[in-house]
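Researcher: Re-running this chain for the archive, since the previous output was lost when a drive failed. Same request as before.
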Amino acid sequence: MDTNNLIINLKDISFCYPGESSVLDRLNLKFYQYNRIGLTGPNGSGKTTMFHIIMGLLKPSSGKIEIFGRPVKEDKEFRYVRRKIGLLFQDADDQLFSPTVIEDVAFGPLNLGKSKDEAMDIASMTLKSLGLAGFEDRITYKLSGGEKKLVSLATVLAMEPEALLLDEPTSGLDDNTKEKLLHILSDLNLSFILISHEIDFLFEITDSIYTMQDGKIISDKEAYIHRHLHAHPQGKYSHVHKEHKRLK
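Model: Regenerated structure tokens:
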């Protein structure tokens, strides 16, 4: 692929938490514009850790990080990353902290230098685009789990990122909210990496699926990721196999 379209380039990234064994072991990742990648793997395999390293929330013990062709290492350099890449946390309560929905969604644009009126307009338009018009004055902590997840996504999209990192966006969602999220993500003109244990959802929304194993990212073929032709009592997603490529 054209290196000019390279968004994230991780080179030999290793990381371990204090007192624990290695989580990431010389991990490599190249993520390009227009990629929509699904990432799966067991709990504790390092998926969320990798996202936090990309965003500068954790520092690797070794390896190099390049974002949009720029090497990033220091905290001040990651400010640029956070303007360009939106991270949706696994737990919506880690993302929402303002009293009302509109304040939470407007917070990002305000930090990007928008005026209060501009930030409020952006927040309102973002909520409307996600089918959340009328949520502006809702009390954040009183929202349902699915509503919190969608409002969290609104806080990320309001900053107009160029790519997304989505950490278990379907976790805890009912089928209707999950289907709504599927349509929202399908309609976005954005590249993203999406962590999920729900293989059917990943097959529906992503172009390639990879797994974390032994501190590295491997292809679905090596990991034997597949889905069976079988009936789901609650099934809403198609069961057509796709071809996937190895992640370089």
